[in-house]
Amino acid sequence: MTQEQAARTLVVGAGQAAISLVTALRELGDTGPVVLVGDEPEPPYERPPLSKGYLRGEHDRPSLVFHDAGWFADLGVELVTGDAVVAVERDRAGGSATTTSGRCIEFDRLALTTGATNRLLPATGAAEAADTPLPPDGWLPGLHSVRTLADADRLAPELRAAREVVVVGGGFIGLEIAAGARALGADVTVVEVADRLLDRAVSPALSDAVREAHERRGTRLLLHTGAVRVVVDDGRAAGVELTNGQTIAADVVVVGIGVVPRTELAAQLGLLVDPRGVVVDAYALTSDGATVAAGDCAVGPNPFGRGVPGLTRLESVAHATDQARSAAATLAGHPAAYDRVPWFWSDQGDLHLQMAGLPQGADRQVVRGDVAAERFSLLSYRDGLLVAVESVNVPSDYLTVKRALEKGMTIDADAAADVTVPLKRLLTPTADPRSR
């Protein structure tokens, strides 16, 4: 098939999933024209460093960029930045999309990698009370959330100068920022509405260990406490009002209370949409049987054979990368199910958390190492089968278990706690049908 005859692909969204998708398309031999549209002015870049090293000045802007202009040109990908697809229509044969600039892009194949936006903490009432209008993006000086490079650029100088920082949300992003602020010398308070940190993502034992580690470093943690609104004084955020009626003063308020998947275009197309995202199958195919979706905007079957079945929402670079590769294979006519072992990581100061598998639903957990010394691993089991590892500053344990899960192997739970025996010596195959 010639370039002129090849199918035209429109990829909406320019994050990790988009880059993985177009890379995989070319690796699969697809030669059709590709247009990749992102609403940020920057070329596609890595997001994980934004809440970690980038805030501390350890990464510059160029180091975050995935690829230069030459890479896109070599792959035959037209990169459109600073524009957004606002309307799209299609049928089984193709369709067209319209951007904010008025450009019309015709396509044969459509991929939605639209990502998500951060949830906002209400601040309008406070701003109006202070007779201070909110800026168009909904944020005030001193009030921050980190999702984009522009967000991080705005936060970094204020964080370095702050004396009192309140972080609303005890998830990965919130704790990474809290650790960075504490290392910079600020007094830090983390407000979390749940009764434990990282409650949706990790086991209760790891939540407890992370809480204790942050407290040892001087961070104040308020669990089972919600934030009602941002307090505004003289045109900038000055603190947070809590559900218990108290107010915490702050120079800087950072909100990290989760994300909202960007599903507007999917809804416009009449696709099946869940509150957690655009619903896809194991091949990243949406309900219309033609459009694919991947990354933070999508929700689909659990890709992990040993995990709890049903629709699963995962937010990680690994998930976006692997699901997007399945989306590319579907578009290229070589469908391959997304069935990878989930893995994650989080650097919170000198705490290096690495996780593989999914601990949810486990009925036994083995502690390996010294929790108080912040060098340990938690191995989770369900019905006698190893389903996850959560490691803190023990990368060898993490890597061994991740590879074991990928190869359909397990580790005897009774033997796993003995740190004098390397885990790799304990690997045994399993014939369990949930294994891969």
Structural overview:
Keywords: FAD, Flavoprotein, Oxidoreductase. There is one protein chain. The protein is built from 11 helices and 29 strands. With 436 residues, the chain is α/β, with parallel strands linked by helices. It has 3 domains: 9-117 and 260-331, FAD/NAD(P)-binding domain (3-Layer(bba) Sandwich); 120-257, FAD/NAD(P)-binding domain (3-Layer(bba) Sandwich), CATH 3.50.50.60; 350-429, FAD/NAD-linked reductase, C-terminal dimerisation domain (Enolase-like, domain 1), CATH 3.30.390. The strands form 8 sheets. Strands 3-2-1-7-20 form a 5-stranded parallel sheet. Helix 6 (172-183) links the parallel strand 10 and strand 11 (187-192). Helix 1 (16-27) crosses helix 9. The model is unreliable at 124-134 (pLDDT under 50).
In terms of topology, how is this protein built?
Elements: E1 9-12, H1 16-27, E2 34-37, H2 61-64, H3 69-74, E3 77-80, E4 85-91, E5 94-99, E6 104-107, E7 109-112, E8 116-118, H4 124-129, E9 143-144, H5 149-161, E10 164-168, H6 172-183, E11 187-192, H7 204-216, E12 220-223, E13 227-233, E14 236-242, E15 247-249, E16 252-255, E17 259-261, H8 264-268, E18 273-274, E19 277-279, E20 292-293, E21 298-301, E22 311-312, H9 317-331, E23 343-348, E24 351-357, E25 364-370, E26 375-382, E27 385-392, H10 395-406, E28 409-411, H11 413-416, E29 427-429
Parallel strand pairs: 1-2, 1-7, 2-3, 7-20, 9-16, 10-11, 10-16, 11-12, 19-21
Antiparallel strand pairs: 4-5, 5-6, 8-17, 13-14, 14-15, 18-19, 21-22, 23-24, 24-27, 25-26, 26-27, 28-29
Helix pairs in contact: 1-9
